[in-house]
Write a structure and sequence with these properties.
Blueprint lengths: L1 E5 L3 H12 L3 E5 L14 E5 L3 E3 L2 E2 L3 H6 L3 E4 L6 H8 L9 E3 L6 H10 L7 E4 L4 E5 L4 E7 L3 E6 L4 H12 L3 E3 L3 H5 L4 H11 L1 H5 L12 H20 L7 H9 L6 H10 L13 H4 L1 H15 L5 H14 L8 H5 L7 H10 L11
Parallel strand pairs: 1-2, 1-6, 2-5, 3-10, 6-7, 7-8, 11-12
Antiparallel strand pairs: 3-4, 8-11, 9-10
The structure holds NADPH dihydro-nicotinamide-adenine-dinucleotide phosphate (NDP) and ketopantoate.
Length: 364
Amino acid sequence: MRIGIAGAGSIACGTAALLYRNKHLPTLWSPSGRSTTAFETKPLQAHGVFEEEFMPAIAQSAQELAEANDALIIALPATGHKQIMDALAPHIREGQHVIISSHASFGAVYLTQALAARGVSAPVTAWGTTIVSGRREQGPRVRVNTIRNRVDLCTVPEAETDHGLALCKSLFGDRFMPRDGLLAILLSNLNPQNHLGIALCNITRMERGEDWSQGLNVTPKVGRLLEKLDLERLAIAKALDLKVKTIFEHFHQSFHVPVGSISEMNQQMHTHGYGGLGPATADSRYVTEDVPYGLQVTVVLGRLVDRPATLHEAGIRLFSAMYDREFALENEFLHALELESFSLCDLQHASRTGVLHRPSTPQT
Ligand SMILES: NC(=O)C1=CN([C@@H]2O[C@H](COP(=O)(O)OP(=O)(O)OC[C@H]3O[C@@H](n4cnc5c(N)ncnc54)[C@H](OP(=O)(O)O)[C@@H]3O)[C@@H](O)[C@H]2O)C=CC1
Ligand SMILES: CC(C)(CO)C(=O)C(=O)O
């Protein structure tokens, strides 16, 4: 299949290499054009858990990306999702599948509604994480640290679930776990809680621009914080009667290490050489993306089901103080969709249909 990828960073390039390896035809689109200049003269070189070298097709615009491809994958930080959805939405065709990797906040609802405003219906598949992990390196290189065994997904509207699963399997193999709607997917993205603990406890390393091993620095106390944050997320999922994986399953399925404490699992990743490097800047998506688009949404859901996520909330406040910003207000989807004015029941409905009805509008 011809797959258009919005983004040309770590995940976009790693995913493109995996698609190419699986005999599909990926096209990359860098919104500013900067991230694809390296491929004008040199092939994309993927290394790490697999090696692949090929010339990726490059799209010059959102329009070209949508028109020239069978399906689309959005693979860039959530801070850019609204802008990229606004750019793609006018060009997405009826029935053209869009995958969001990884989904955050209520992005799939925003996109579905933008398409509905044009009278277009297209399935949107939301992934709880990415199919690969890795880092874009200098020039045309990308390091792929892992291919995950299991990625949680759902498709809106719900009637397209089988279609979404079949598409993902045909592109990447049998690596997907269907979940019950967008609220489950939103609660299946563990990056925000994990990055809260990792960034908070290593903020001086980040701010000083050090090179530091992320896995090694999930020390026992940091690991315990991640485990306690996980309990808050799991309590919210339970109150919503949603099945989501635990942090232990996440590290086991993503990084293929035996189950132990979260610190032990991270130490193993470090020992095997894929513990990864932590951010070498305070201006990192671990904070700028994950606080507004992850932690804030968990806190809102926690309030709605009377399971306050107090550690998550403390994280938002601490980062907001350190960065002198109001991260809670930086989630563009919460504003654009006016999410605060909807009830839990409205959100649960949107979680399956992709459509948020005004509270006064009768639901179908
Ligand atoms: N890397 C990893 O291992 C993992 C990543 N993720 C998630 O995957 C997603 C992608 O991450 P990753 O690839 O690492 O990120 P990168 O920072 O490598 O992504 C860079 C790409 O995103 C584009 N981009 C960044 N910000 C914006 C913006 N505001 N508007 C438009 N485009 C933007 C850049 O555009 P341009 O080309 O114009 O510069 C570039 O193409 C994120 O949500 C991340 O949290 C999840 C798990 C693991
Ligand atoms: C490094 C890793 C895989 C774990 O924190 C990650 O999720 C990320 O880069 O966003």
